[in-house]
Amino acid sequence: MQDTGKDFARQYRNMMSQIDPWEVLNRYGAKNITEIQTKSGPQLQHSCIIDQVDPHHSHGDQSPSASLHMSKMLYCCYSFGGGDLFWLIQKMEGVVRAGVLPILSKLLGESVQTTEQFLDEIDRYFVQEERVASIPTYSEKILEPWLMIHPYMTEARGISEDVLKSHSVGYDEKEVRIVLPHFWDGKLVGWQKRRQDDPRWPMTPLEETGRWGPKYQNSHSFPKLETLYSTSQETTISGGSSVLVVESVLSVLRAETLVTSSTITRSFLMGSILTNTISTFGAKVSDTQLKLLRNYDRVVLWFDDDIAGLRATLRVCKALDNFTHVYVVQNQGARDDLAGLTEGEIEYYLTGIEPSVLVLSDIEDRLKQMEYALKKEKELSW
Q1: Average pLDDT for consecutive 10-residue bins of the chain (382 residues)?
Q2: pTM
Q3: CATH fold of 5-134, please?
């Protein structure tokens, strides 16, 4: 599909306008519904329905604070946040994207050609990675119960309280997880909750199977592939002179701590290696993220020294080579990522930065060796 982002956004809005907004609210038993006229178009104001699955109104929102835009199909609770119709259904039903389509068939207006045609069209657009993402936004009030700073972050991970506070990093005592909010373009767009697995403090409970749950739990419709986590809460869309790209949020926070309080050789900091650090939320790098990285004059990659990290390094190098100057941190044999290394180890690896063109063949060879070793290990285990 060759549609541009603007074309897709327009087509997506047209498709969403075929949903009956009254059916949406009726499905979830919305109360105190009133149709109001605003500058952006008619909206259905009502008592928040999200309160049913994620209580956040102390008195059940008797004075309605939520609204559903009747043509754009955007939902907003003024004390919680909101998103598009897909976000709302996922939130209310507790389903992944694939589970939204059957529910949509029950919400269509009478003017839609056929349910099958509509759902096929929606699915055809959303299977494309290159899409315009309707990123949810939240009120920062939702973070208030989690603002406690856990000693795991300061004592075990070496991140300063000032950095944690600047990023609103906190702790969910009920779930026993570290809360890592994500701000994009100045707005709270979601959060990750990281497992606390250091035995020096109460650890995240095991699941019923007796095993650990996922290391990271994301908020609904978390824009993992559409955004980047940065040392600055401002958007990274405008780019800049230089950026260091890592896999994890903790690595970003650690880098920012070092920049503001460390004794690492000043020449490295002056070279902007750590000053502007961003994360891709893992080793999977989307085309959208690659386009954002094109805006920088210099991109330095520091992915993990494992199969996934090497694959990501190769993908980013090849994708950005024609757009900007790409460099790679040579971290062969590193015992951890940037977040888990000492200052001395970080300084050592920062001396091993090479232009991507000089190291691509070595990275490809190392990747083949790791993949072969993994294959043999699996064969032996059989």
Answers
A1: 50 71 90 86 90 82 85 81 80 78 73 57 54 75 95 96 96 96 93 96 91 90 92 62 94 92 60 84 93 91 96 95 90 92 90 90 94 88 73
A2: 0.71
A3: DNA Primase; Chain A (3.90.580)
